[in-house]
Amino acid sequence: MIHNIQDEILRLKKEQDVCILAHSYQAREITEIADFVGDSYQLSVKATTVPHKTVIMCGVRFMAETVKVLSPEKKVYLANPIAGCPMAEQMERDMIGAWKKANPDYAIVAYINTTTDLKTVCDVCVTSSSAVKIVKNMESDKILFIPDCNLGAFVAEQVPEKEIKLLQGGCPIHAAVPAREAEAARAAHPDALLLVHPECVPAVVAQADYVGSTSGIMNFAKESDAKEFIIGTEISIAEHLQYECPDKKFYPMSKQLICPNMKATTLVDVLNVLKGEAGEEITMSEETRLAAKHCIDEMIRLGG
Ligand code: 13P
Ligand code: SF4
């Protein structure tokens, strides 16, 4: 059944010259039919180079919006319109715009997990894989980092020479894992290395053997000589790694690490987008697009 749907998707996408991009939190049956699978930074950069006129994003809304900002000539569809990232909605453009006016000597750094609207008042975007490098490379020494205070705290620790202010925001999935759960996972698997996403709280990050983005975690586990790993990010990363490295063992740090938004997209959704029966085409005004593009362009310039 799954293979029949996958075959139909592959046939239609070839016929219609469609590119399917998938975030690495997507289920395996979706990553199998995607043209490219990656973390949010890799997906943004990839979107600028694919030749197809149409892109289907299997991920969350801000990822589809980023593709549209960078490639306005393409038709961009979010495979399942309910797939949003709650963190992206946590801060309002007007609130951050007012903060910026009151603090003109600060540069506003926005995690890419933000709405296009919020990006219009920010100076540069970062992703979890590029945040440290970009903040180091920025001309400004005074920074407001939004919305994820956990990623921001991690960056502040890595870049102590800059003054980094944080606001209270973050990922409800990663930030919900308490330090005691990481300790319990370590106690249950004493030979395993703990690999953690920087959206986790500092008390979890402090216990990690490696801290990095989804692709950083995957690359570290594949290249490491170690045989066992506790995976401190969305559960699909442990699942993908187990398929790709059958001779190693992967344990989720917590059974709660499931992002319902990332899991909202199904193979049938993708098929129905190709049939013109589902999905949402991403649209935005040219004024908003250009204002938001500035900080995504800066991300690619400073992170490249
Ligand atoms: P990455 O930048 O590692 O892809 O993470 C995106 C995300 O939503 C993590 O929760
Ligand atoms: Fe957003 Fe967290 Fe889900 Fe990532 S895991 S998409 S940050 S809610």
Separation of the first and last Cα atoms? 42 Å
* E-strand count: 13
Which ligands occur here?
A: 1,3-dihydroxyacetonephosphate, iron/sulfur cluster
Contiguous runs where pLDDT drops below 50 for at least 5 residues: none
Shape, per Cα inertia axes: globular
Helices, by number, come to 14
Q: Strand share of the residues?
A: 15-25%
Note the quaternary state here: single chain
The percentage helix is 40-55%
Query: Which structural class best describes the helix and strand composition?
Result: alpha/beta
- The Rg value, from CA coordinates, equals 19 Å
Structure notes:
- The protein is α/β, with parallel strands linked by helices and 304 residues long.
- It has 14 helices and 13 strands.
- The protein has helices at residues 2-15, 28-31, 40-47, 61-70, 93-102, 116-119, 131-137, 149-158, 179-188, 202-205, 214-223, 235-244, 267-274, 286-303, and strands at 18-23, 36-38, 54-58, 75-78, 107-111, 124-126, 142-146, 163-166, 193-196, 210-211, 228-232, 249-252, 280-281.
- Strand 5, helix 6 (116-119) and strand 6 (124-126) form a beta-alpha-beta unit.
- The longest helix is centred in the C-terminal third of the chain and has 18 residues, at 286-303.
- It is globular.
- 1,3-dihydroxyacetonephosphate (13P) binds next to loops.
- Iron/sulfur cluster is lined by residues 60, 85-87, 113, 171-174, 199, 234, 259, 261-262.
